[in-house]
Amino acid sequence: MASPLGAFRSSSGGLRTTGGPRVSRKDRIVQSTDTDALSSKYSAYKKGYLADPYLEAIVSGFLVQEQQHYHGRGTHSAGQFVNKMPIINIGSCVRHLAVTRLVDLFLESTEKCQIISLGAGSDTRPFSLLAKYNKQTAASDNAADVKLIYHELDFAVTTTKKALTIFNSPLLSDVIYHASPRPQTPPGAEIHTPDYHLHAADLRTLNATTPLLPGMDPTLPTLVISECCLCYLQPDESDQVFSFLVTNFGHAGLGMILYEPIGGNDAFGQVMVENLATRGISLPTLQRFPTLQAEVHRLADRGMGVPRAADMMYIYERWISREEKQRISRLEFLDELEELRLLLSHYCVAWTVTPNSPAAWVDAYETQLPYQV
Ligand SMILES: C[S@@+](CC[C@H](N)C(=O)[O-])C[C@H]1O[C@@H](n2cnc3c(N)ncnc32)[C@H](O)[C@@H]1O
């Protein structure tokens, strides 16, 4: 059967999309990190740490395509969907709660706005947010009335899988095509509806002069999410992404949530870096921005406003209620408290808005933080 992805293995082992550029081994490894994120989230979900009505549909859709089109040799492998250690599950849960909380606070303090998710991978956040904020807008209603426009960017190989997964799932299609007719034939690597845009885009091609991608609106307040994504780019490449964002969206107010590893210089961080290196993964920005302070100055120096940052241990202790912590503690036996502390203190979330942004979220949320400019 002809693959709708049109993908085949080149003799050198690289993955090529028909008519498209050859994908380097390094890029393929970076693409495969989406499986790490998805399988970790799925493990936390299965153990009851977090709720996500769309996760089963995404996991099964990606795995089916993996089997059909890559014969299990692509970037998503069923073998990775096993139970993770309790500290990994708690880490996924804290990350999910922190980003969700920040996104909700931004959306609650803004009227119509757009989200741009960098390296979105298989993330299910667009489904929950579009269902929560937009779905009451029926196909016949004026799509201009929707509150949220959601953009997801990733490599074409990943967006193709996501587009097909959405097309094949009534649950996901119902959310994505609520304001426009569902297509009769499978989409390619992109989806464009009035409030959802899936872009096949290599972030390394973005800079201050890159034209806006379809559906991007420079007049709307914008929230950018980078959840474990910009860390895979070289510092100068990620700077170009910031230039693209500030040039195009700075006028109407720009916010950002950046979730990244930190602390690569200490013993635990070195082990983390070495473990990734054995898989061929490097995190160039971790060397350059290894602390909360460096992450905050990174954002401020690139015109991204007045940032705040906290490591995930701080978030676990301060943002998660006592009741929720008690619930979490009953899910699995955890005897590696020191390891949990070490793990959580090696990831951070930084968030910021430019002063002209209508979102009041930086100061509204918390002012006493480990690091702020
Ligand atoms: C660790 S995954 C995170 C996925 C998602 N943000 C999440 O948190 O579940 C990193 C994602 O960034 C994407 N990515 C990394 N470099 C990229 C680039 N240059 N262009 C587009 N996507 C990229 C990868 O393909 C992958 O899907």
Automatic annotation (TrEMBL):
Residues 9-20 have a biased composition (Low complexity). It comes from the Eukaryota. Keywords: Methyltransferase, S-adenosyl-L-methionine, Transferase. S-adenosyl-L-methionine binds at residues 95, 119, 202-203, 227. GO terms for biological process: methylation. Signal peptide: none annotated. Residues 1-28 are annotated as: Disordered. One of its GO terms (molecular function) is protein C-terminal leucine carboxyl O-methyltransferase activity. Its EC number is 2.1.1.233. It catalyses: [phosphatase 2A protein]-C-terminal L-leucine + S-adenosyl-L-methionine = [phosphatase 2A protein]-C-terminal L-leucine methyl ester + S-adenosyl-L-homocysteine. Methylates the carboxyl group of the C-terminal leucine residue of protein phosphatase 2A catalytic subunits to form alpha-leucine ester residues. Belongs to the methyltransferase superfamily. LCMT family. This is Leucine carboxyl methyltransferase 1. It comes from Geotrichum candidum (Oospora lactis).
